[in-house]
Amino acid sequence: MTITATGLTATRAGRTILYQSEMRIAPGERVGLVGASGSGKSTLGHALIDTLRAAGHGVAHVPQSPDEALDPLRSMAFHWREAERALRSPPCPARQQELFAALRIAGGDLCKRPWSWSRGMQQRFVIALALIGTPDVLVMDEPTSALDPVVAAGTMDLLDRHLAHSDTALVLITHDLGLAARRVDRLMVMDAGRIVEDAPTAQVLASPTSGAARSLCAHRNWLELPC
Amino acid sequence: MLSVENVTVRRGRAQVLNDVSLTLAPGKTLAVVGESGAGKSTLIAAILDLVRVAAGQITWAGAPVRRCSPALVMQEPRRAFNPHLSLRRSVMEPLEAQGHVIDTSHLTTLCAGLEIALDLLDRRPTEVSIGQAQRVGILRALIAAPPLVLFDEPLSALDAVTQKHTARLIADLQREAGFAALIVTHDLGYAAAYADDIAVLRAGQVQERTPAARFVTAPQTDYGRTLRDAAFALGALERVA
Ligand SMILES: Nc1ncnc2c1ncn2[C@@H]1O[C@H](COP(=O)(O)OP(=O)(O)OP(=O)(O)O)[C@@H](O)[C@H]1O
Ligand SMILES: Nc1ncnc2c1ncn2[C@@H]1O[C@H](COP(=O)(O)OP(=O)(O)OP(=O)(O)O)[C@@H](O)[C@H]1O
Ligand SMILES: [Mg+2]
Ligand SMILES: [Mg+2]
Q1: Is A13 in the pocket of ligand 2 (CB under 6 A)?
Q2: How far does residue A149's CA lie from ligand 1's centre (Å)?
Q3: Ligand 1 center to residue A108 CA distance, Å?
Q4: CATH number of the domain at B1-70+146-165+177-241, please?
Q5: Nearest CA-CA distance, residue B96 and chain A, Å
Q6: Any idea what DSSP says for residue B122?
Q7: How far is B231 from chain A (nearest CA, A)?
Q8: Could you read off the pLDDT tens digit of each residue along chain B, which spans 241 residues?
């Protein structure tokens, strides 16, 4: 059944940073959320998560900064145990090893605290945490922002495999249109706290209607390369 | 000139940098790319004397690097600021400490270029988006205009339009002020468009150093090719349709 979240809004210090919005997400669907820096993508992500959880849906979240997910005073092993416990999932070393190998963090020392891991390693650890269970919706906020192209591709491939045989829907917040073009079915475009466009990915990329989408599409590439 | 000679850094039992040598001439741009966890941020920490160097030497114009008061744009944008202070105080304090006279019109121009609304500076780091915090980090580094600026993933939280404006602004200021820029980035498109040279770091070692234009067409090592091909596959280097 399609999940609907309505009445999504946010105000901070008397300013509205997210205007009345709603999102509909079909089971297994992949939605991309794009827009300028500061347009309200993370805010919409948080509002969506709060609303879905309040309605009893299972939601996993990969926040934009690993700092939001990791306690600096706790070891990585502690975070893993806590996540398994929260999902009432019995400890499963094989699953952990499989995820870590695919994400190329098998070499990370679990006895260490987050700050002994590089930023991109922390990000991948948080992704692994989100892949322990099978939530209704997985919200990932810029999950490849700290990853090199090889590791980023591997991470997105793992995600594809993980989602392929489940009903888990993906909300992928990203500034990377190249990434979105390859990984999501539908694109939602945000501008100044509003969703200004919502259409199949190919349609948005080929004929954007909003000013925000048009300018993002026009600046997609760094340079024209001789091929 | 920044000179990193045969530098080794250990953290715990692990050797995080292994005999790394690099140079960067005044006014030039060196992009450092490579695998996540390869030691790029550690290289920056070593240059700034924030980690102990087990072997080797790092100098700017023959003297300790700190003497040129280099600026740093940190990888984790919000962590770069004191959470209790307004962003404006965090930007101004190092300038005041160094006895710089702050030219408000210069601040206003830079904010406009970085698309930072002036009222945003009155907020604390947790009260702005991560990409906004990242741009304030760049503002703080550029306004001091030291001869050496170290950027750790400076555009990682920005959208395509803001990335391009910010990259252009950094390059323009670099041309005016003549600072040397060491830019750690995962974005090969950015590196190819703006760096003079690209150095590839993997498992604590420099694999290759290649002029940026040549790296895109002909990387010198297998890992360099793997990285370039992956960037193409992800769309980071794709041609305009
Ligand atoms: N304080 C620390 N104590 C122990 N090990 C550390 C510490 N900081 C970093 N490391 C290790 O050093 C290696 C290099 O880390 P570094 O942060 O320099 O990588 P990086 O190239 O910047 O990666 P990323 O692209 O993910 O930011 C990693 O394996 C990391 O786990
Ligand atoms: N506590 C606050 N007080 C005032 N404004 C705030 C506060 N928190 C966030 N904002 C504003 O809300 C807007 C949306 O922020 P949000 O983090 O959702 O943006 P975003 O689209 O995720 O940006 P980015 O791509 O940079 O991560 C921003 O303009 C930000 O400055
Ligand atoms: Mg955000
Ligand atoms: Mg780093």
Answers
A1: yes
A2: 18
A3: 10
A4: 3.40.50.300
A5: 29
A6: G
A7: 5
A8: 999 999 999 998 889 999 999 999 999 999 999 999 999 999 999 999 999 999 999 999 999 999 999 999 999 999 999 999 999 999 998 888 888 887 889 999 999 999 999 999 999 999 999 999 999 999 999 998 899 999 999 999 999 899 999 999 999 999 999 999 999 999 999 999 999 999 999 999 999 999 999 999 999 999 999 999 998 887 666 543 2
Helix axes B104-113, B130-144, angle to 10 degrees: 140
User: What ipTM was predicted for this assembly?
Assistant: 0.93
Residue contact B135–A37, C-beta within 8 A = yes
Q: Which two three-digit tokens encode residue A167?
A: 């009903």
Collapse the DSSP code of B11 into the 3-class scheme (helix H, G, I; strand E, B; otherwise coil) and give the result.
strand
CATH of the domain at A182: 3.40.50.300
Instruction: Give the pTM.
Output: 0.95
Q: Tens of pLDDT along A189-227?
A: 999 999 999 999 999 999 999 999 999 888 877 754 333
Q: CA B226: distance to chain centroid? A: 23
The residue behind tokens 């390059």 is B171
Q: Where in chain B is the domain with CATH 3.40.50.300?
A: 1-70+146-165+177-241
A223 domain residue, yes or no: no
